[in-house]
Every structure is written in C-alpha cells, then in structure tokens.
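Hi everyone, sorry if this is the wrong subforum. Our group has a chain we'd like a structural model of before ordering constructs, and none of us has done structure prediction before. Sequence below.
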Amino acid sequence: MSYLAYPEPRYHGDKGEVNAAFRPADTPPELSSPGGATHYLATHESTGGEFGLYKVELGARSAGAKTHFHKAISESFYILSGELELYNGEKWVTGRAGDFLYVPVGGLHAFKNVTDEPMSMLMLFSPGAPREEYFEQVAEMSRRPREELKEFRVRHDSYFEEDLEAGA
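Answer:
Right subforum, don't worry. Here is the predicted structure as tokens:
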C-alpha cells in the first residue's frame, strides 16, 4: 500500500510550544459596510502565510463579486447560513448551509446574494495572502478610474473578466 508523504517539518523543536490563538465568537467584525461585515478569523500574518480564513456576512440583495480568478491562491466557500449564488466557472449554483465550493488556482468564480435574507459564509484562501487591504479598499477603488481599479485588482491577485474583455 502506498501512502502520501507529509510535507517537510517546519518546526524543529523537541517539545511543543504554547502558541495557539483563540478568537471568541462575539469579537466584532474588522470590516463593516452597508452590505455586510467581514471577520478576519485567520490572516496571512497570523498564519505565517499558510492560509487566510474570513467569515463574511452579506446582507439581502448584496452584489458580492463578479466573475474573476486568482493566479496565486485558491479560494473556498463554506455556507454557514442563508443562501448564496455561486458561479463555479460553468454555471450558477445555489449554495445553502453546509454547502462547500472549492475553486483551484486559475478557476473562474463569482458570488452574490440574490435573496431577501442575509447570509454568512467562511472564505478560505490558500496559501495565505494579505487580503485585508483588498477587502478594506475595494469599495473605494471601485469609484476610481478603470485603469486604477484594474491595477489595484492585479496587485491583489484578482483578475476580472470585465478588465480582460475591455483590454484595460
């Protein structure tokens, strides 16, 4: 029988360390907007770049993100409550509590809340990337000239079809 190999050790101590991080459920979101809230559960910085995990709450009829892909990171969605329309690169599917969508590097995807109810989900990025700046500035950057918006998106490994189609 063949077994897959574990990654090379990155911790070389002889005894474990006390280094776990606990985040209580009642911690306020780091980012709040009229369309929802984002909780930074685990960031690029706090995981040493291993992954980023965010709890995202979208209000009713929230636009979400248009079709895009990433060249350096995968993105996963786990629906906690409500419903979310997810584009899997081929078609729109309705995600409900307990549903999961994994998008490998380069995979087209999008999401939006088309219901009259709020929803919440976990978003996982791997490896970790400093996505906080993206979430914090994307609304403002969307009001900037198209070329400036595209540069911001590319800096954050987000390639949108509309940028590619427009040749911007």
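For your construct planning: The CA atoms of residues 150 and 163 lie 7 Å apart. The first helix runs from residue 132 to 141.
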